[in-house]
Each structure stands twice: as structure tokens, then as C-alpha cells.
Amino acid sequence: MKEDFLKAMQFRHACKVFDEGKKIPDEHLRFILEAGRLSPSSFGLEHWRFIVVRTQELKERLKEACFNQVQLTTCSDAVAIAAKVEDLRPGSEYVETRFACYADRPDVLAWVRKFYADFYSGIDVRQWSITQCHIAAANMMTAAAFVGIDSCPIGGLSAPKVMEALGLDHAKYDVALIVPFGYRLNPQPPKHRLAFDDVVEFR
Ligand SMILES: Cc1cc2nc3c(=O)[nH]c(=O)nc-3n(C[C@H](O)[C@H](O)[C@H](O)COP(=O)(O)O)c2cc1C
Fold first, then answer.
1. Which of 36, 76, 84, 174 stands 20 to 30 A from 46 (CA)?
2. Which residue's CA is the closest to the ligand 1 atom numbered 19?
3. Bridge partner residues of 151 (DSSP)
4. Which residues are CB-contacts of 33 (< 8 A; sequence separation ≥ 6)?
5. φ/ψ (deg, to 5) at 144
6. What helix, strand, coil percent values describe the chain, rounded to 5?
7. 97 with 91: CB under 8 angstroms?
8. Does 135 contact ligand 1 (Cβ within 6 A)?
């Protein structure tokens, strides 16, 4: 129902510190990741790789790479979203497997290949890939809120340090965002948003 969805949207906030004693049940974590997996992406290229960080040692390294934000060490699980880069090259094996859904329509496949190659040549690929990952992150945070789980998008990070901690190759990936999930320790602060009419216009 609409009310349940809006309740989740109101419940979600950028949680600054989690209750270290509370762990997310596996079933809920999988539900959250599923919301990420089912997210829309440009050309259907599913630009993301979700790395679930559970060990305290790795959480500590991420915290250090994220300006010592304590969300990283107090959370139950932190999902680092790596944005694909190398795989997105036109004609790559990865792109071709994603475009295989057009295999039974060779004319469409040829058109999509050409359209994608033209599109690709005119964009900042890393930034484009990161943008897609942010959509998956938003869906995961909303899904989490729907089952009473808190989150905080962490964009305040040193990408090279995060990449090093996670063993990610710069040629292949970039870091889109890290999203720690868990349960709030403190009450939620008031939500500040512009009024509906300040952000919406009908034409
Ligand atoms: C891309 C992105 C990066 C963010 N990075 C951080 C961050 O590094 N640390 C943090 O505490 N909050 C971060 N935030 C959370 C925002 O500050 C927060 O969503 C905003 O102030 C609105 O507050 P609310 O989410 O609690 O309603 C980030 C949000 C987004 C969308």
C-alpha cells in the first residue's frame, strides 16, 4: 500500500551510527541485495558489483578510507558498490552477453550495437557507470527501510584507498558508493526537505 511505502521513505535517513550488537538476518540482507540486482540500468548493462563487507578487519580499512566515518565499523554489513568500467567497452564479451537478449532479432542487435558504440564514444564512462550504481543503492536503501533496516550512503571516501582495501583493479572498476546497513543507535533526526511545490512542476 502507498502508506507503507511512504512510511519506509520517511523511516530511511542517513544513519550516523549503528547499534553494533545488532546483526541483519541473512534473509533480510538477501532481500536488500535483490532490490539492487533488480534495479534498472542504462542499456540493461547492470553496471554494478555488490561487495558485502562483513569482517571487522575490512570494515576498519574501509572506515579509514572513508574519513573515519563510524558507520563503516558500527554497521552489521557494508555493501560496497563497484562500478564496472572495462566490461562496458563496446564489443566486449560482457556487453555482448548483455545484448544477447536481442539475438533472435539480428537487425535490432546490429542497431543496438551501433547506437551503443556511438553513445559510448561521447560520455564519461566512469561517471556514467557510477550513476547507474547510485540507482541500485537507492533501491537497496528503500528496500532496507521497508523491513526496518537503517542505512547511510557513503560517498565521502577516498576512491584509491577503497579500491586498494577491496583489491579492485582501477582499469576494471571504480567505486560508486558504500552503503552500510544495520540498526540505528540514536533516534532519527527531523527530516528536512524542500516543499513539494518547490521541487515539482507540472507542464
Ligand atoms: C551520493 C551520496 C553520498 C553521501 N555521502 C555521505 C557520507 O559520506 N556520509 C554521510 O554521513 N552521509 C552521506 N550522505 C547522506 C546525505 O548527507 C543525506 O542523505 C542528506 O543530508 C539528507 O538526509 P537524510 O538522508 O537523513 O534524509 C550521502 C548521500 C548521497 C546521496
1. 76
2. 14
3. 14, 181
4. 50, 52, 79, 140
5. -60, -45
6. 50, 15, 35
7. no
8. no
Beginning with the edge strand found earlier in the chain, give each strand of the sheet holding 48-53 in spatial order. 48-53, 77-84, 173-182, 150-151
**C-beta atoms surrounding 156 within 10 Å:** 10
The response to whether residue 133 sits with its C-beta less than 6 Å from ligand 1 reads no
Mutation test residue for ligand 1: of 127, 132, 154, 186, the one with most atoms within 8 Å of CB: 154
Q: Where are the beta strands (DSSP E) in the chain?
A: 48-53, 77-84, 150-151, 173-182
What is the residue extent of each domain of the chain? 2-199
Which DSSP letter does residue 189 get? P
In three-state secondary structure terms, 148 is: coil
Task: With both helix axes pointing from N to C terminus, report the angle between 26-37 and 125-146 in degrees, rounded to the nearest 10.
Answer: 140
Q: Which pLDDT tens digit goes with each residue over 12-51?
A: 999 999 999 999 999 999 999 999 999 999 999 999 999 9
Q: Report yes or no: 27 and 161 within 8 Å, Cβ to Cβ.
A: no
β-pair partners for 81: 50, 177
Please name the fold of domain 2-199.
NADH Oxidase (3.40.109)
The whole-number pLDDT of residue 130 equals 98
Q: Which one of 67, 72, 152, 193 would you pick to mutate in the ligand 1 pocket, going by the greatest count of ligand atoms within 8 A of its CB? A: 152
